[in-house]
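new request in #modeling-help
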Amino acid sequence: MNRKRLVLLLMLMGTTFTSGCWDKTELNEMAIVSAVGIDKNEAGRLVGTFQIINPVNVAGSLQGGGGTNPSISIYRATGDNVLELDSNASTKISRDMYFAHANLVVIGEDVAKEMGINSIFDAFERSPEFRATTRIVIARGVKAKDLVETLTAIDKVSAEKVIKTIESTEKQQGGSITINLQEVIKNLVSSGKEPLISGFTVRGNTNKESKIENTQTSNMAANPNAVGIGVFKDGKLIDWLDGNQAKGTMWVLDRIVNTNVNIDWEGKKDAVTYQVLRQKTNVKPKMKNGKPKMYITVRAEGDIREVNAPIDLASPHGSIDIEKKLAKDIKKDMEDAIKLAQKNKSDIFGFGELIHETHPAYWKKHEKDWDDVTFPKLEAEVQVEVFIRRTGIRNKPYLLDIKKGDQ
Amino acid sequence: MVSFFKQKRQMKQRDAKKEDQGQSKTVDYIESSLSANMEIVKQKTGDSPDIIIRTLKISQDPEIKTTIVYVQGLIDNPSVTDFLIESIMKNPHLSEKILPQKALEVITEDVVSLGGVATVNDWEKLFLSLLSGDSIIFVDGINTALVASTKGGERRSIQEPSTHLTVRGSREGFTESNVTNIAMLRRIINSPDLWIESMKIGTVTKTDVSIMYINGIVKKEIVEEVKKRLKRINIDSILESGYIEQLIEDQVMTPFPTLNHTERPDMVAGNLLEGRVAIFVNGTPFVLVAPALFVQFFQSVEDYYNRFDIATATRFLRIIVFIISVVGPALYVAATTFHQEMIPTKLLVIVAAQRETVPLPAVIEALLMEITFEILREASLRMPKAVGSTMSIVGALVIGQAAVQAGIVSPAMVIIVSITAIASFATPSYSIAISARLVRFAFILCAGIIGFYGMILAFIILIVHLCSLRSFGVPYMSPLAPLNTQGLGDTFFRRPMWAFKERPKLISSKNNLKREGENQRPLPPESRGMKTSTERKGDGNES
């Protein structure tokens, strides 16, 4: 009896050892990939650019030295699909590439426009290492490699800089959209919604971006910037949204967090700045005469942050006028954004999904021609309510006092 | 896990012992001739110079020879000289004519002014008394001797205990003397129900071992079990309570202690009041307490002296500390060699930068550092105090500075090992801290082989093992497993004193579980507002 148990025990213990160290990788045996760029060469093959973190140079002062060497290293490979890029790159890298910390995938504009993004993401999604929360951006006007190669100053790893910049742009301005792998794939699959992906470019001297000198000046020669939002249709990039179009889109998508809204006042351009503190956008489809109509209501609440016109904010009329004007401006931005999307025949707002949810019978009939026929003709009514919560730590602008003194 | 190996062996041993005890011993009785007796004493003790034989003469016509035998250093000098020798020499009763047969009676009743006097007639008992500090009075012609209790001699005075230190609470610690220790408990628990049973264990050392319990609170079965196990012991010597602990514990193959030991009388008192049994061993300040539960090792007496919220918070801290001391380095090894995706990118980059120059795999690095730390700890424990500080400097410099700068170990590993080391010292019970250290190495190995998966396996084995343990029949993990909701109030939590309604169910006697009366929760006086206002009026000292 005891012998049997002993044998069983030994066998059980043996199993733990037979598994071996199958997954074991020491930290100094792996290359931590922070960003992947995907371009296309003239021959139509994919060119992958891998940004690999050079830990010693990032951690900096720890081992003395550091900092003077670039914190990232770039490896390039050519192939016909994404996995081939990975395996071809291994001829150049001494270590195993580790993708669990690759937080950014940059797609070249030409890839997005000509090849489309449909066939790219499977390898990323299937890989156990890749995260579903990896952010996706489009390199606008430059190659993806340019963006991946760029050395940046404050965030030493440029992937991190790109992600943070998009996040802060979305939060502060509403001009970018943070979107990850999972969301992009979800939107690609959905027939009632098209993906939006932020654009990113490198401004300035694009020959210097991969040199260490780039980070050694206070005014970087080449600096990655967030620019606009890319609109996709059937997996291909068809248009860019900039400025107010982007903001209007973000309003409809209910993704505005803290954006500033400027309004003109008595002929003076952008005289009043209003900062949204919180807002809620509700989109509801309703059937009217057998056709759906989108009712979009926005309730925004915020502060007045700048007044360059003599408006008496203390009087109820002053603020009500501003509120009305703000509502009108926001409404216009949103309507413009919707019109543009309809012109592009790309349902970036997910109106289709909403109709699918609320009126499945109608959706069934129109699913096939939604993007090209139904969506461009869809009616939308926008209602905006703006509320000024505070006026900063001052009520009347001092301009009002100056004007009075003049009299 | 190993219990099935040992059962048979134990059975065999038990059988062997029974046979041993079955052999009858021949008893040697005291002779009536004094000189013959003295010869026997001298012969038995090898004529050791510390055995003092003082011969006196009592009575007249005929003079009777009397001998007082005692061991130098073990007796209390004043009582032997003043109350024994002087009384016998100068007592008027003894200068009269006495019949030799009556001499003992006279000495007992009229002469010796000591508390404990008894008669013995067999040598074994006589030597036991003699060598534990009693004085023996022989009278020529009588085959009975008188034992006068004169125990004394130099002993360590009561000092503050060096383990289980507390900020608040009694400063008394046990000493090496059983008599003193038992008296200390008597002073705390003034109840006739505090029962003590004594026995001598050790065929050579004849160490005085006493068990103490509170009759009525203790479970009868546990007392019986303790007594049974103590009686089973057949060993030449008991030099410390650790001997007893190892001979009576439930499960031999476990790194976890199934008996608690303490130097604090208040801790023993608290345990007795929960229905536990204390085992006092002469010659050591460490008193054993049985049965011991896993959660007990995370409790300090101070938990009960502090308010419950603070006590609960510290207990949670101790659990965290214990977990860190068990899995700390293993977690680091597993995360950095198998599960890099779980480390935030920035942290990973920093750790990777540190590991860049380290030539060893993380497991080996961890084991190396842990072993180095254990060496340091062991060395600092055993070294003379004067050298200790030199060594800690060398240790800190060599490991903390040189090894890191040379790139042999990473600073992160030094941090992890230091945290683990501090954590293992922050565990209130030293015995469970040692267990944690032992288990830690197993965890590091498992983590090094198959990462978190291995750690989880090790953890499951650990939990199963802990649940399989018993301490004197009480499940080691109770009241967690088996779950006892009432008992949970004194585990990782410490319920408020006014809500401590019951004693632990599995340990205390079932008939006497009630610990405190109803409505013990303190309340403010009902007419508080009124009172304070009148007080304020009357109190003119404020300004």
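bot summary: The radius of gyration of chain A is 26 Å.
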